[in-house]
Amino acid sequence: MKSTILKGMFMSAILLFVACGESTDAVESGTYQGTVKEVEADKTEIYVTTDDDKTLELYFTETTSLTRNGSEVEFSELEEGQKVEVEVEKNGKRLDPISVKIME
Fold this sequence. Notes:
Layout: H1 2-20, E1 30-40, E2 45-50, E3 55-59, E4 65-68, E5 71-72, E6 83-91, E7 94-102
Parallel strand pairs: 4-7
Antiparallel strand pairs: 1-2, 1-6, 2-3, 4-5, 6-7
């Protein structure tokens, strides 16, 4: 009985965690335009809402190129609400950003 109660509590905790998490969409490799929804500076991660209303979760890697007006810029230049163009590569369930261009 005790293990059944613990199992139920564990499942409830998982459901609560999932319900509180950011909902993201899986897309194919390619180039997408959208708006920066959220910037997680400590994780070098951004969420982008695409023009077709999908949410992309992008963790920057050491090879991700970030540019504005053709020049490389620091991650700190990214802000919520900016228009961006992102080129992503799908690796399993993860999207790796190859390049992010700040459009404004």
